[in-house]
């Protein structure tokens, strides 16, 4: 039992609100429902937007130092509740408890770092004739929609800059993982004034209702590219600002000079951490033919040694796939690979109940295979051979996605040259999965629109306002 094994409520205008109906939340390690979350009605969404609009009048004029202090306090609250939140996180999301706790603590660090940022003021003229300054002002009420793979981190990536900037928010977690976010809504009621941060949950109708709602000034969305396109279409009606963080099919390129024992572990976890449900996970692994077999054998050995199971059990390294829909998607890719006689190297056995998939490496499939072309977002990794650097860069870039990528080589200068030719918003050299609150994260091509993180990310929640003052 954790402190949170009880009913879950929304936070609207600083108050607890239950749904008229509920949605079931399943533990992906068993496939069985263990909790219910409110299914927000349209009227309750209207209430949340109205509360956020009312709160905006005061919050926008609250000194930024006070807004930053509140966001720092929110970080303290996450840290103080990290153990209970982590246990709940594991039950709804599936990730092992230690790694779940790292997500809560990482989200707190994010809040702290963003709370240290302030928007700039530019003075373009300060003369006897006139004074011209450009400052940044908040937009209004932000509609924030989060996915299930990093439910707390990716929600806080939105909460921190939006609220520091002076906006208010209505946040919706994924229906697959609403519980930690609802709980955080309750915990933050002592941190933010009523209406500043409203948290609602619901089924498949709620997202479209939100993006079409005229009370929002901006939508900040993280999820799949297909849904992102629908969000942008809906936002166009009243020209809401949008930030979209979408899917990826990230390529990693492994040059022949790497230290195989060193890079194998790093590459493995760069692909399979969180059961490969990471937007910036390595999803296509291109390996120079001279070291292909040696790296494949090392990765397959790691796959066999890693315990896949219930995240609540001691020793589990990788949990289940998070939900049935995603499980079916990954299994369909596996089936397609089997039908096409591709060679599959499976890792350790997995439990039968729940949404478990064995870690699987696909041994040198053709470039046209579905598992290469599509974002799997699950533990099936295509590993492909290359000989020529120009050719592998072309293959890495032959994607509608442009989220991230990695280059592995002892020749760091050559690796940087290759990195610069990769058409993605983030490229790592001899590392992966490293993102920071002070560094912009921007999906190129169909991986996104706009930026999260860094000063650019903060300014996505603001609009420039130029003030011209005559002095003569
Ligand atoms: P999803 O698009 O199915 O859902 C994301 C969120 O959108 C959920 O809260 C969902 O309820 C809501 N939603 C669904 N349909 C909607 C609609 N028509 N209008 C408004 N909201 C709607 O994505 P998912 O399956 O939860 O997440 C996995 C995807 O997210 C992967 O493609 C992954 O790469 C991507 N992702 C991207 C990033 C990034 O920062 N670029 C981070 C994490 C995940």
Largest sheet: 7 strands, mixed
Strand content: 15-25%
Overall CATH architecture of the largest domain: 3-Layer(aba) Sandwich
Distance between the ends: 71 Å
Distinct compounds present? nicotinamide-adenine-dinucleotide
Question: Topology of this protein?
Answer:
Blueprint: E1 10-12, E2 15-17, E3 21-27, E4 32-39, H1 42-59, H2 64-80, H3 82-93, H4 97-114, E5 122-126, E6 130-138, E7 141-145, H5 151-164, E8 168-172, H6 179-187, E9 197-199, H7 206-212, E10 218-222, H8 225-236, E11 241-245, E12 250-254, H9 260-272, E13 282-288, H10 292-305, H11 324-339, E14 343-346, E15 360-363, H12 370-373, E16 380-386, H13 389-397, E17 401-402, E18 404-408, H14 412-420, E19 426-429, E20 444-445, E21 448-449, H15 454-459, E22 462-470
Parallel strand pairs: 7-8, 7-10, 8-9, 10-11, 12-13, 12-18, 13-16, 15-16, 18-19
Antiparallel strand pairs: 1-2, 3-4, 5-6, 6-22, 11-21, 14-15, 17-20
The structure holds nicotinamide-adenine-dinucleotide.
Plain-language structure description:
This protein has about 475 residues and is α/β, with parallel strands linked by helices. The chain folds into two domains: about 270 residues, Aldehyde Dehydrogenase, Chain A, domain 1 (3-Layer(aba) Sandwich); about 190 residues, Aldehyde Dehydrogenase, Chain A, domain 2, CATH 3.40.309.10. It contains 15 helices and 22 strands. The strands form six sheets. The protein has a seven-stranded mixed beta sheet, with helices on both faces. Strand 3 and strand 4 form a beta hairpin. Helix 2 packs antiparallel against helix 4, helix 3 packs across helix 4 and helix 9 packs across helix 10. The longest helix is centred in the first third of the chain and has 18 residues. The relative contact order is 0.14. The structure holds nicotinamide-adenine-dinucleotide.
